[in-house]
Amino acid sequence: MSDENTENQSKRDDISERLEESADRAVEGFDQRLVDLLAWILETETKARIYIYLRQNQQSTSEEVAEGTGLYPSTVREALAEMADDEIVERSKRSSEGAGNNPYEYSAMAPSDLISSTKGQIQDQLNAVFNLDAYTSSTSEPESDPVTITVEDDTDDESDHTSSEDIISSDSSESEEGDEDDSSPDDSNDEETRE
Asked: How many domains would you assign to the chain?
């Protein structure tokens, strides 16, 4: 009976371990899809990772964000400055007692506010994709003439004769008889085609 209990416990542990692994993979997949979606909204994966970190750790300094995301501090500072300009994050001075500089701390806006602020941009992008046919088949006059490429077959062009003469003159080791022999079969072919 103890062997049966041990075997059942082993099976339960194995099932539990597989469920945990599946849950971890699902969470990782969800996290990556969330990062991808935010990267599309915020324009870069760097900003998406910073946004996610700040949602979990409000009022963080750029150093803390760099450590938490694994990004270079200079990259984080630049992205945070852009995000503050776009009002995606709020920046304020951290108050500390004592001498020294008070660093900025950052807090990210709520996801619902982020979506609301970018809703117009997302709608415009989706409308542009869905209405692509309407844009490409517009009947309005173009601002300038379209580019036209014309290919002509100019076998009687002077430059072609010149280059042929250059080839003949560069091959001066051949006698004139060789040239006559080359031209006679051509002449006979011309006569055969005329008849």
From this structure: 1
The residue whose two tokens read 């371990």 is 17
| The model's pTM | 0.52
Phi, psi of 89 (to 5 degrees): -125, 155
Q: What is the secondary structure of 130-173 as a DSSP string?
A: HTHHHHHT--SPPSSPPP-------TT-HHHHHHHHHHHHHTTT
**pLDDT tens track for 109-167:** 998 888 887 777 777 777 777 777 666 766 555 454 544 445 555 555 544 444 444 44
Which domain does 41 fall in, by range?
2-136
Note the pLDDT tens digit of each residue in 15-72: 777 777 766 666 566 677 878 888 888 889 999 999 999 999 999 999 999 999 999 9
Q: How far apart are CA 49 and CA 56, in angstroms?
A: 11
CATH value at residue 115:
1.10.10.10
Query: What is the distance between the alpha carbons of residues 47 and 53, in angstroms, rounded to a whole number?
Result: 10
